[in-house]
């Protein structure tokens, strides 16, 4: 690699999340070079490239992959397109950052895991929460076994998404900055593109984190879902079991309105103590059975959702400077969890997941 | 008004007996307990004029207008049924019964005899619970979509039959719990579900006025004879879905977490029963954040059930915040949950065993 200290990175997909976070993050980071952009929409691609002053652009991402211009790519396109693009990038020998959810089908997610392992390439997923201090402290808590045997997990993820599911993203122009581009109306409202609603788009955050920090795999999932008049699920109520026998719940609603508080929490109960992680507040409270307590609070200037961190983390990972804070195996397990939840809701029966 | 108490165990001697003695509209007229020593201690401490070894003798003596039933769970039904059959108003401790058919039989008997039947769901007697009930009656949350519940508590030692582990937590006056009251499933009906989830789901059933249509539960017992941690997903009639996570594994001095969150089409309500907070946030942008209830009787009105039965019978109030219908719906919910955990499949209400 010619550019070890400064990996050359291409960004595939110049939609709202890319241009709000990934592209400016790379441009503002001396440890990376933003080498090229790709998007199937030529008008959007030209506008974004001109806005950020990026010279090399590709209408066809696969041409970018074989161009020799980049060491790795960040793929931020509608969910249904994640798998074929990530596979092509890995097959071209590129390191891959893939937005969440990793894929829609678990077989595809595991296929990417295997391809990356075989080729010795980095594969990391856009789980931004995992870049926070609270999440990393929580991960260490499980790595060190401090909570003892995990008994139960309680999760809630109530967020501001309903207008996306309705195909009306502009309703949220007051909360998100869509100055350059907002989401395409169908990205989150069309189940063929999105793979679903609250589970595909939001539960993936919460369960991605649960499966990452615990290192456990889901074994059984029972989900109730409600779409209302939408084409995708708006509220979900899930009970599940993890390898090792822990039980858990996940409740999620996309109904929070702009201006209202988000409720994004996971609470972990073990045989030696418990931990309360409030994602939306960036806090972690640990209470151990020996009486020890610890609180991780948000520090001044620290973001509860450091959206610029994943792009720089990807560059550091390629350059060998940093760890993979959002590795592919727990992300693939999360895809399997969400897939099982949708199958369960459709069939009315619990769905077993082969632990991997 | 003459009130008797059956069962002179820890909760009676801690709450019901002193509450009745302090209630100027009530006269503690009789106590019954099958253990002569326990009975003698209660009579000496609280001054009941009549003492009986058996609730049937107490009822036959005709010395009570209302009866408080505070015996181990498995004995609730028989005592409450005999009291109603004798024309006596009843406060029955939670869980109302172990079997749903028995609970509905008590509902039927009370209706037929036009008797008041109050269930010992202490939290439902607070001013916050009253406001929460109003929120559902007024429809200000719109259509209920999702309920998320968490109930973590300090109970595990009771499930182990270790009744002295929590001496510093409860100020046991005359009695501690008996070893087998919570550890023997034949007496308790179960563990965390029967003893603790009943509090949370009692509140949900009362507030929403709903019954569960379908329930799925994962339960973890570890080395116990009863369930220690439960993860439940469910669907209510009316279409709302929900989750309930609960564990009894917390240790002394760890903060218990007892929270219910209700998401509707027009807003949401956050009810923290343990910390005495209630918030209502409507989608029209208005919010109501009630002042936190101080610790003690405002937050946990232990005298509520006895005061309410007295005032209902005397005609001083006409609302019952812990009505038998919601208590029976809660028993029904737990019966479905235990069956689901045993059979590893969701159980629909129609598939429940018929009333005997």
Textual characterization of the structure:
Chain A starts with 7 loop residues before the first strand and ends with a strand. Chain A has twelve helices and 15 strands. Chain A has 356 residues and is of the alpha/beta class. In chain A, helix 5 (106-119) packs antiparallel against helix 12 (328-347). Chain A is globular. Chain B is of the alpha/beta class. In chain B, 34% of the residues lie in helices and 23% in strands. Chain B has a nine-stranded mixed sheet with strand order 14-13-12-11-7-10-9-8-15, covered by helices on one side. In chain B, a hairpin with an 8-residue loop joins strand 8 and strand 9 (229-236). In chain B, helix 5 packs antiparallel against helix 11 and helix 6 crosses helix 9. Chain B is globular. Classes of the chains: A alpha/beta (356), B alpha/beta (356). Chains A and B meet through strand 7, strand 8, strand 9, strand 10 and strand 11 of A and strand 7, strand 8, strand 9, strand 10 and strand 11 of B.
